[in-house]
Design a protein that fits this description.
By secondary structure, the protein is mainly β. The chain folds into 2 domains: 7-15 and 23-152 and 324-336, Methylamine Dehydrogenase, Chain H, CATH 2.130.10; 157-279, 7 Propeller (Methylamine Dehydrogenase, Chain H), CATH 2.130.10. Helices cover 0% and strands 52% of the residues. It is globular and about 45 Å long.
């Protein structure tokens, strides 16, 4: 197991404002502006923009809603018509203090590059991060910034990651290999399961029994049984280039963004049938469903807009802008007991 030193570097927020930690926040990452936009999800207003590293792609929020962890992947402008993609290799994580609306520090990943998928543990003490260039997943200690463990996927473009609710297993979607890597954190065992060309979007059911994977090259969605780590169903995505998948909080539905079809398709988890198709903006990628299951937010990368959807009605209720090339999003719940606006 490789271990590398890590350096913590204090960073300065782009501007100062009075802190307000009383309300929920939607964190939206603007890849081409190298920023995290903090959005009031009730008013769709950007309350603060903070500088991150180059090409921020994904974010995870600590369980107490205090911290946002942003992977600075480096590459940006990936799908924009008429633009040449900027394929830089990032090597850091930006830590945002959501109470102070400021960047707290930057975690430099010595020896690891192109961090992308990220998840925080239930107790907020650890981060799991994919590092594409090394075909690896690392486990970081939040407090010290040290790499506690690492695993090799030995797969190409290990991109997105989810953990089962008991945190015994990590599931990693590998785009170029068209597979999902399963990491058993207890035994250390690592295995990879073929799913389909372009495996990327991935989410685990709230009850921990299934993982759904969007295979963007195959235009399919694979269902993995967590108990056996076998693909038990392969579904047509209902569109072109399925790139993200997310369960609703009640676990009854799975939402899939078909990026090149400019639509979101809703699946019934029980029947595995498509039950709705919703037109959104150009090149929808990121999906974030509010914890109460009432609203879905879709980041339309090529429109520079976020679409808001009423989940029950399957209806678009509006759009808002945060910056150039929005992609990854994360919901930061207000601290327990805090008054909300």
């Amino acid at each position: 197991m490789k271990r590398f030193p890590m350096t913590l570097v204090l960073a300065v927020a782009t501007s100062a404002s009075a802190p307000d930690a009383r309300a929920d926040l939607l964190v939206v990452l603007n890849k081409s502006e190298h920023q995290a936009a903090l959005v009031d999800p009730n008013t769709a207003k950007v309350v603060k923009k903070l500088a991150t590293g180059r090409g921020p792609h994904e974010a995870a929020i600590s369980p107490d809603g205090r911290w946002a962890f942003v992977t600075n992947y480096g590459a940006y402008g990936l799908f924009r018509t008429g633009e040449q993609p900027k394929l830089e290799a990032g090597s850091s994580i930006t830590v945002v203090d959501l109470a102070k609306r400021a960047v707290a520090r930057t975690v430099k990943l010595d020896g690891y590059t192109m961090p992308h998928g990220i998840q925080v543990s239930r107790d907020g003490t650890r981060l799991w991060v994919t590092c594409e260039a090394q075909q690896a997943v690392i486990e970081l200690e939040v407090a010290s910034g040290k790499i506690a463990r690492s695993w090799q996927t030995d797969q190409d473009v290990s991109h997105m990651i989810v953990a089962t609710p008991d945190e015994r297993k990590l599931y990693v979607a590998n785009i170029r290999s068209g597979s999902v890597t399963v990491i058993d954190r207890t035994s250390g065992a690592v295995q990879s399961i073929p799913t389909g060309d372009g495996a990327e979007g991935i989410d685990v059911a709230p009850d921990g029994s299934e993982v759904w994977v969007a295979n963007r090259g195959a235009n399919t969605v694979s269902v993995i049984d967590v108990a056996t780590d076998a693909v038990v169903a392969t579904l047509d995505s209902g569109g072109e280039f399925p790139i993200r998948s997310q369960f609703t909080p009640d676990g009854r539905e799975v939402w899939v963004s078909n990026a090149k079809s400019n639509q979101v398709v809703v699946f019934s988890r029980a029947s595995r049938e498509r039950i709705a198709e919703i037109a959104v903006g150009a090149m929808p990628i990121g999906i974030e469903i509010s914890p109460d299951g009432r609203r879905a937010f879709i980041a339309n990368t090529n429109d520079d807009k976020v679409t808001v959807i009423d989940v029950a009605k399957r209806a678009v209720t509006g759009t808002f802008t945060t910056g150039k090339e929005p992609d990854g999003m994360a919901w930061a719940a207000a601290p327990a007991g805090a008054g909300k606006r």
